[in-house]
Amino acid sequence: MRILVIGGTGFIGPHLVRRLNAMGHELAVLHRGNHHNDLPAEHILGERLDLARLKPKAEVVIDLILSSATQAHETMNTFRGVARRVIAASSGDVYRACGVYHRSEVGPLEPVPLHEDSPLRTKMQVYPPQQLEAVRKFYPWVDNEYDKIPVERTILGDAELPGTICRLPMIYGPGDPACRFFPVLRRIADGRRTILFAQGVSAWRPPRGYVENVADAIALTSVDERASGRIYNVGEQPAFSELEWARKIAQAAGWTGEFVVMPNDRAPKHLTVPGNTAQHWEMDTSRIRRELGYREKISIEEGIRRTVEWDLTHLPETLPMYPIDYAAEDSAEASRFSASS
Q1: Is residue 83 over pLDDT 70?
Q2: Pairing mode, if any, of strands 194-198 and 85-91?
Q3: What is the mean pLDDT of residues 72-81?
């Protein structure tokens, strides 16, 4: 089967392409020619805006970089009458729980784990412009209209071209452009013996997935016709809290220091978040396991080990998304001892 991957040279794409190639499929990748020219696929050079002109041939299209309804309509219009199915990478941020966390949704907390039929946000474009700008530094395909809810509706609402939606978690692995392990590993690399957490952040449980496993899940939905018209949550189970996750990262890095959880009102401001951390994002991934037989090939421990090993040799000095202020952290820690004396 000929499969086209749009966004196939990003973080997930190369793992997905190699997985599908190993399964015996013919691959094509649309990209700008910047990297990953060694992938076992036909390389179609161009931008997303070139889709209508290029009209690449494919039986199945996997679009990893859909950001808005405008882009989704372009994909469907291009491949209607050409492909027999489109698989779109979506996100767990479609759920109402995300809006509750960001305080754009009023009312009670959403029960977790979130399943595919859990309520979606009622407020569109939940991320403020300044946050989108920060995200765009890691994911340049994100546009100003970013919202996966209209993307999903467009992909699943076409009367002629069936679609499949994969709601993805926070993805980690070697080469993670967002460097999600940075807050822990930077402090370890800088020789910190204590790492502080604000209480609310420490207990928060988001969904996570190792990049190769996420790629395998997408590959499975693309080759199994039972996935037509379906939505699947993708991610690891169980969902660990931020503190539990930090301890796993520290163990893989061989760090023997101490994690300290502080009350939110006493923690340094840069370690707190404006969101409602009582609202977890844990996702139920039993549907893809039950219906398609999905199982992770790489264990959580092995995924963390590989990521830590890569990150420690590629760790940036700073990342604006994860501010560090050691003076404030030292002061907060000192106040902890003075308060107890």
Answers
A1: yes
A2: unpaired
A3: 95
Q: What angle do CA 234, 283, 224 make, to 5 degrees?
A: 30
Residue 176 counted as domain residue: yes
Whole-number Å distance between alpha carbons of 78 and 83 = 9
CB 19 within 8 A of CB 216: yes
Cβ atoms of 243 and 202 within 8 Å: the answer is yes
Cβ atoms 335, 201 nearer than 8 A: no
**pLDDT band for position 284 (50/70/90)?**
very high
Confirm whether 340 is domain-assigned: no
129 or 21: which leads in pLDDT: 21
User: Dihedral of the CA atoms 271, 274, 275, 277 (nearest 10)?
Assistant: 40
The phi, psi pair for 192, rounded to 5°, reads -70, 135
Which pLDDT band holds residue 114 (cuts at 50, 70, 90)? very high
- Percentage of the residues of the chain whose pLDDT score is greater than 70: 97
Structural element, H or E, at residue 245: helix 242-253
Span 103-109, average pLDDT: 95
Provide the residue range defining the domain that includes 118: 2-335
- The reply to whether 341 falls in a domain is no
3-state secondary structure of 146: coil
Q: CATH no. for residue 50?
A: 3.40.50.720
- What is the Cα–Cα distance from 141 to 88, expressed in whole angstroms? 14
CA 202 to chain centre: 19
Structure tokens belonging to residue 47? 């931008």
The total number of structural domains that make up the chain:
1
For residues 285 and 92, the answer to whether their CB atoms sit within 8 Å is: no
Tokens of 278: 């009582």
pLDDT band for position 36 (50/70/90)? low
**CA angle in degrees (0–180, nearest 5) for 142-146-151:** 110
